[in-house]
Amino acid sequence: MRFAREGLPFMWAAAVIAVALVAVAYRWPRPLPVGAAVVFVLLAIWVAYFFRDPERTGARGPQLVIAPADGKVVQVMEVDEPAFMHGRAIRIAIFMNVFSVHVNRYPVSGRVAYTHYNPGKFLNAAVDKASLENEQASVGIEVGAHKVLVRQIAGLVARRIVTYSRPGDQADQGERFGLIRFGSRVDVYLPVGSTPRVKLGEHTSAGTTVIAELP
Q1: Which of 154, 150, 24 is nearest to 83 (CA)?
Q2: Is-catalytic flag, 109?
Q3: pLDDT per position as a tens digit, 188-208
Q4: Under DSSP, is residue 84 helix (H, G, I), strand (E, B) or coil?
Q5: Buried (b) or exposed (e) across 99-129, using 16+ Cβ within 10 A?
Q6: How far from the centroid of its chain's Cα atoms is residue 149's Cα?
Q7: What's the pTM value of the predicted model, to 2 decimals?
Q8: What whole-number distance in Å separates Cα of residue 210 and Cα of residue 58?
Q9: Cβ(135)–Cβ(100) under 8 Å?
């Protein structure tokens, strides 16, 4: 199993603490040390599970838009997007819980033309105003004549957004471009005229699920 490199310090720390507590519990098998050892062993397993980074394959193509994140579709609607799209756009929002794979992937292939980080609040990422008020990082991609924007949004628990993209980079559909630690949301903004292929409540798999088709 592959793991995200950003998670390795957390995984090592959790594993070291768990091993130390197991050693203590083995030497002094009393309820408190045994209970603590069990809790930290489970925590170490969960931390490793959280930072898993499986390989993903699926449909690819210049007209297809692939899910950038694992999770649940919580919005499919037309909105204003002034930062990169400069007008109306179709937003598909995917909410990730703490059990989702949190590595994010490019939904389309093209050239990275825009990146922006905006510090902010840590509201529940599932609510609409989180897209305006929460800490977030945006990556704008030029796909031929079209523009596609991907926005990573922090949530109640998430406190760290990681984005690898820089202006001028080549975006390859389905490849990794970042990660959000401990539960959050990723929005995709598409040009008006795009055809969504997911509905509210559906679950997506990053790098695999086709969520829309470009005009």
Answers
A1: 150
A2: no
A3: 999 999 999 999 999 999 999
A4: coil
A5: ebbbbbbbbbbbebbbbeeeeeebbebbeee
A6: 14
A7: 0.82
A8: 8
A9: no
